[in-house]
Amino acid sequence: MKPVIALVGRPNVGKSTLFNKLTQTRDAIVADYAGLTRDRHYGSGKHGKQEFIAIDTGGFEPKAESGIYKEMAKQTRQAVAESDVVIFMVDARDGLSAQDHDIAQYLRKLGKPVLLAANKAEGMKASAQLADFYELGLGQVHPISAAHGQGVGDLLDMALEPLNLPDIEDTLEEKPDVIKLAVAGRPNAGKSTLINTWLGEERLVAFDLPGTTRDAISVEFERKGQKYEIIDTAGLRKKGKVFEAIEKFSVVKTLQAIEDANVVVLLIDATQGVTDQDAHIAGFILEAGRAVVVAVNKWDAIDDYQREILRRSIEMRLVFLKFADIHYISAKKRQGLGPLWTSINKAYTSAYCKMSTPKLTRLIQEAVQFQAPKRHGMYRPKLRYAHQGGTNPPVVVVHGNSLEGVTDAYKRYLDGRIRKAFDLKGTPLRVEMKTSHNPYSSKSKA
């Protein structure tokens, strides 16, 4: 699973700036609990080959007893609890404050790895002002500039090194025998009800696999000879106790469950429509490259007019998941669950589809004959051959000349032809261009 880094500090020390630098985007997954005035923001980052999840928090006042600051402190404590390592940010320009001492005191009690980052420290490495931060008792002070990226790489080295995480390598994964199936969605969308219905229908014994409080809990069962492992982001009770109950929603649990799954069921509450949270989770599924099936639950609870509005909303807001099957179900009444299983199995098969090089090459050449890519400057991109570069999701690597000029629209055109040829449904497909080296380029410059 991806490690989790929480950014903590008092207001205006640059946490959001560092978050944007780490995630290389201004888009974030937000925990949209009702009534909270300042939410935690989640995003994916990558340092070298190592991927991680970053959490941005609001200004932290550990001693706040009421109002907005108490709610913000509650959010920060949750982020720290979900994290593997904490980056405590202070302002090198403003210097040490009483609030910094309060935060440091709270973090020291937890015994969790903490890195102290002095932000806005451009040109201040030898400054005596930085020495004051050693009073916080958190060890070495790391001077950084989140706005300019100075020192951020070294800080990430320090954050990720103690976790002893293996580098991610591009490999052609073998199709596993047990399908890891994650059920993701907002609180109260019906995740527990759906899983309860599945288990009850098949009369299977569920058992909890050991894990930490931050990990999603897995349940194993078998259906029509196929073994599954359901990764439940809501949490399950022990054997013998049917898990209804209040769902404990953790964004980190959801993101890590998605990463660990082969197929994800994105569960949408028909009575609530497609929310920002649903769209953010869908975006993360796509970014993670996981096969996905969309299930709209509580379909029986809305009328025909609401159904039509919801269909249009799904088409607009989840347009980037148009490759996925959509099912309208009622977990409570056990309606529509058979076709849902068919789509889950189809998405799983598609995610691990093996594509032969001769067939891919022939397919690419036929696509070019039917519609050639547009010229890029003086040259027209030449697509010569293709091979499969990975599974889960399938990756097709196209080789040729001047391929940097291939447009996104043309990649989508190739995507459609590849999907049709190999009958891919429910899985993202990545088409990568690799320009061949010109052996005469160095000679022409001589």
UniProtKB/TrEMBL annotation:
Domain EngA-type G residues, every copy: 3-167, 179-352
Gene3D superfamilies per the UniProt record, alphabetical: 3.30.300.20, P-loop containing nucleotide triphosphate hydrolases (3.40.50.300)
KW Cytoplasm (keyword) present: no
Does Nucleotide-binding show up as a keyword for this record?
yes
CDD domains attached to this UniProt entry: EngA1 (cd01894), EngA2 (cd01895)
**Keywords assigned:** GTP-binding, Nucleotide-binding, Repeat, Ribosome biogenesis
SMART domains reported in the protein's UniProt record: AAA
Q: Which GO terms describe its biological process?
A: ribosome biogenesis
Q: One GO molecular-function annotation for this sequence?
A: ribosome binding
Q: Pfam families annotated for this entry?
A: KH_dom-like (PF14714), MMR_HSR1 (PF01926)
Hey, which family's this protein in? Belongs to the TRAFAC class TrmE-Era-EngA-EngB-Septin-like GTPase superfamily. EngA (Der) GTPase family.
Q: What does this protein do?
A: GTPase that plays an essential role in the late steps of ribosome biogenesis.
**NCBIfam families linked to this entry:** GTPase_EngA, small_GTP
Its name, as the record gives it, is GTPase Der
